[in-house]
Amino acid sequence: MISAAMVLAAFGASAQSNVAEEVAWVVGDQPIWKSEIEAQYNNLLNDKVNLKGDPYCVVPEMIAVEKLYLHQADMDTVIAPDAAVVAEVEARVNYYINMFQTKEKLEEYFRKPLSEIRQEMTDMVRNNYRVREVQRSLTSDIKTTPNDVRRYYNSLPEDSIPFIPLEVEVQIITINPTIPRQEIEDVKARLRDYSDRITKGESEFSTLAILYSEDPGTSMRGGELGFTGRGALDPEFAAVAFNLNDPKKVSKIVETEFGYHIIQLIEKRGDRINARHILLRPKVSDNDLKDAMTRLDSLRTDIVGGKVPFNEVVALVSQDKGTLNNRGMMVNTDRESERNGSSRFAMSELPQEVALKVAELQPGEISDAFVMMDPKLNREVVAIVRLNRRIDGHRANISDDYQTIKGMYEKQERDRILREWLDKKINETYVRIEEGWRNCEFTHSGWIKEKSSEE
Fold first, then answer.
1. Are 381 and 372 in contact (CB under 8 A)?
2. CA-CA to 334 of 20 to 30 Å: which in 184, 268, 370, 408?
3. Of 291, 293, 284, 225, whose CA–CA distance to 259 is shortest?
4. CA dist 113 to 8, 37, 103, 178, Å?
5. DSSP for 329-347, written as a single string
6. Distance CA 249, CA 198 (A)
7. What pTM was estimated for this model as a whole?
8. Region for 356 from its dihedrals, namely left if φ exceeds 0, alpha if ψ lies in -120 to 50, beta otherwise
9. What is the pLDDT of residues 292-305, one digit of tens each?
């Protein structure tokens, strides 16, 4: 089964030179060009994707599968939310800039301006989202019972039962160091200065966002968020942004958990808004970090001494919103992990600072206070962690690893449903594969019709 996540757009097409333009496949009324296949292959190489088989068989089939899913998405009117698309595109752009070291080197490699690369990545991400939504819809009715999971496990050959690496369950308490009032006032003064310069026509909002905004996801495109619904935004931010009506005006200063913002309206469309913002984050001093660590170390001493339970300190002190209502228990949010959504982590899935502390602990022990980077807020916080449970590496079994085996069974069922759907879709769709592209062992049968009408 070809994963939709591996279907990449051809934004690297111009990095290929002297590719003769010709049609290799036709799926429905959609051609697949040789240059498109070359570009896809180049991108897969850049992303270090291991292709199994001849790339000039595998890659065009991947593109053809995507076209079938996108045709279904058109019929089902599946639309990718702009905010999610924009966020993923920026993450990819930043990855490539880091890989090539500078924006200029990235543009030189792809022989395109960054704006064009970003637009082509946007098309790619939007298509990938729509493909995933079609797949999700096709497999949404899977119902799994314990008997299904047990029968599946009992049917597995012994060498197919996965080895489960060391896993841990971790509780965490974090506090945000106190930021001096003067630092906050300095940040607000800078934002008021930017607002005045924009209002007087001395500077463009987008220019100041590129130069000064501390939101890495939007600063490079002038602070622009992309069309976004109210629910996708911080409530304080949304309350101000959705009340803006004049694109020439700048909002008042808005405080959120991420820092301080000023906002400019670009356009409203129904219940969605496109706006720019500039974010500044007050800086934490070394003394503030030391004070927070001293406070947490003192609380740790009280917990270890039996004066107060760990769970009670979580409720009274912790500022980690993601774990506050879960007794401080960390939840795995790695989408690529089979442990996603559970309280179990492989050590490599923990934040690096947390993993280093957990490696030193026995179950029930609590670490000293340490500084870590909050990945959501992108700022330093102080934390202590408690190792709640350690599960040594072992062969999966029903009693200890039910969720893992259940996930394996459901993946098998999803793959079966999608494979059957694709086989039916291929059989119903006009497909023509040109000579020179047909001598392949394809993943799906039916691409080459038995005596098609055009032959």
1. yes
2. 370
3. 284
4. 19, 22, 9, 43
5. B-----TTSTTTTSS-EEG
6. 8
7. 0.63
8. alpha
9. 999 999 999 999 99
